[in-house]
């Protein structure tokens, strides 16, 4: 992207820039990735400088950002990569993935519960088996939906997604590495103290273990690219954390134990 710094993974927790010198943070909030916890944390840290983007009102948001380009320090929402192309200000991206099998199970459960969801009427008896038997054109909405949001391109390959992450996303964390992800965000964006509770985050291992083998295979086929990208993102996070000074690694362990992260 034009006028944006390309930051390596090893710089993710680097020196904090003054707010006026930082690019606008575009946080791609992928559905079913610790949304309640993440939203509360972003609201606390950015306060009035946070814009929660409703893609159902896209033109309104684009007009606001054109008229007041420095109104926000961060935009968060269920938008895909590519929003930067319509903004005059320099931007950088961050996001969080979730184990794609667990995410898909959670997504299905959410739609079954939410009678106002556009796809609720398609859920039949509410079983996962029924969901996985839906027509291909209906399931296309969910096919590798995490990488589709990270790239802004349905059908993106794992290879091109990984290249884009390396180039455009200083931080992509995972729900399963939530504390590590939050620590890197705090370090990069100069956040204050954090008191975090994991809310609305199911146990990924438990969810996967409840699946029948046939259900697991069919979901894996639906999110095959997501699985490859997720494996890369997890490994990148592990490498980044392992390279941190011992004192910072200790702070992450304390954060996991207490839910408190000090600046």
Question: How are the SSEs ordered, and which strands pair?
Answer:
Elements: E1 24-28, H1 35-46, E2 50-53, H2 58-67, E3 74-77, E4 91-97, H3 100-113, H4 128-132, H5 136-139, H6 145-151, H7 158-168, E5 171-174, H8 178-189, E6 194-195, H9 204-209, H10 213-222, H11 224-242, H12 246-258, E7 260-261
Parallel strand pairs: 1-3, 1-4, 2-3, 4-5
Antiparallel strand pairs: 6-7
Helix pairs in contact: 7-11
State the distance separating the first and last CA atoms: 31 Å
Tell me the overall shape: globular
Please state roughly what percent of the residues sit in beta strands, choosing from under 5%, 5-15%, 15-25%, 25-35%, 35-45% or over 45%. Answer: 5-15%
Class per helix and strand makeup = alpha/beta
Q: Kindly provide the name of the CATH class.
A: Alpha Beta
Radius of gyration: 19 Å
CATH architectural group? 3-Layer(aba) Sandwich
Helical residue percent? 40-55%
- How many domains, in number, for the residues? 1
Taking pLDDT < 50 over at least 5 consecutive residues as the criterion, the unreliable ranges are: 1-13
Return the average pLDDT rounded to an integer: 88
Biggest beta-sheet profile? 5 strands, parallel
What's the β-strand tally? 7
Give the ordered list of helices and strands: EHEHEEHHHHHEHEHHHHE
CATH topology: Rossmann fold
- Tally of separate helices: 12
Strand order of the largest sheet: 2-3-1-4-5
Membrane topology: Single-pass type II membrane protein
GO biological process, one term: glycolipid biosynthetic process
Main location: Golgi
Keywords: Glycoprotein, Golgi apparatus, Membrane, Signal-anchor, Transferase, Transmembrane, Transmembrane helix
């Amino acid at each position: 992207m034009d006028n944006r710094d390309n930051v390596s993974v090893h710089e993710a927790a680097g020196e904090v820039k003054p707010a006026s010198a930082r690019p606008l943070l575009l946080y791609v909030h992928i559905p079913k990735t610790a949304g309640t916890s993440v939203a509360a944390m972003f609201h606390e840290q950015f306060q009035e400088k946070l814009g929660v983007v409703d893609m159902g009102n896209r033109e309104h948001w684009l007009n606001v950002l054109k008229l007041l380009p420095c109104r926000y320090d961060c935009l968060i929402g269920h938008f895909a990569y590519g929003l930067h192309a319509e903004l005059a200000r320099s931007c950088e991206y961050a996001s969080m993935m979730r184990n794609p099998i667990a995410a898909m199970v959670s997504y299905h459960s959410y739609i079954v519960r939410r009678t106002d969801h556009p796809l609720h009427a398609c859920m039949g008896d509410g079983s996962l088996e029924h969901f996985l038997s839906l027509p291909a054109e209906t399931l296309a909405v969910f096919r590798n939906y995490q990488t589709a949001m990270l790239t802004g391109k349905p059908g993106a390959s794992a290879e091109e997604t990984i290249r884009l992450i390396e180039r455009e996303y200083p931080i992509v964390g995972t729900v399963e590495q939530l504390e590590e992800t939050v620590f890197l965000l705090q370090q990069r964006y100069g956040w204050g103290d954090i008191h975090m509770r994991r809310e609305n985050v199911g146990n990924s291992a438990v969810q996967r273990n409840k699946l029948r083998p046939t259900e697991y295979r069919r979901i894996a086929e639906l999110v095959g690219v997501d699985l490859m990208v997720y494996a890369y993102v997890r490994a990148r996070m592990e490498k980044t954390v392992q390279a941190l000074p011992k004192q910072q690694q200790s702070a992450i362990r304390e954060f996991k134990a207490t839910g408190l992260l000090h600046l």
